[in-house]
Design goal:
three-stranded antiparallel beta sheet, about 280 residues, alpha+beta, five-stranded antiparallel beta sheet
Amino acid sequence: MFHVTVTVPEELRSVLRANQRDGYAILMKAAAEAIIDIGRDPRFVGGTVGVLAVLHTWTQQLLYHPHVHCLVTGGGVSSDGRDWYPARRLFFVPEMSLAKLVRGKLRALLANKRPDLIIPDTAWTTPWVVKIIPWGEGADAVLRYLARYVFRIAITNSRIVGFDDQTVSFRYKHRKSSRWRTCRIDGLEFMRRYLRHVLPKGLHKVRYFGLWHPSRRLTAANARLLLSLERGHSPPAEPARDLAEPDDDTQVAGKPRICPRCRRGHLVFVRELLPKWAQAP
């Protein structure tokens, strides 16, 4: 899997801030569609990848900095869903090419959805920042990503080191030195910064595209089967329901736990996700 971060240039931030509901949705869609389109290029993957997109709007100092984190599958399925095309282990696509494609798609989507917006021309000539890093394989990579990005908020209590009647002090990590520093600001300024990251009611900050879109569940299931066969593993058989199973979800002498909701599937332990993992540093 790969972790792709798409950052919006400064020229666009005020526009997104003033039009959050449309702007954030279009930003996430543009980033995901660009990743899917370039992934279909035979020079890179050659198939449809899955994208889990997460919207963040803050920096360590609570400044407004909208960007999208994307977890991308390390390969894609063919157009007919019969073949799996793996990506290279340490390379997905060129960052510069992806940045240009995201910029072009966002411009086209904004022009179609919100032609009334006035956007500086420099927003479309400034080089955009896109970072791509390998993120590991399998369920372990997904769990680490979910804990680190999906449940993160602008600031947690653990980073607030002190406050009084006038000011608030909190820790932040300096990007260049990778060292923790302390910022002390006026209480009203702290609230202003924090409230800028409260999303509009009903806006989904986590969205699924491509192979992970809900409408492609069957294709995703076929992809998992293809991967199992490719790795030489037998595909998991659907366990038959034992009518003699107890009504609770407790472990019974060598038998797997029954799902407490559907009463048909079996629970498989992957990893224990502790609460502290969901907190930001």
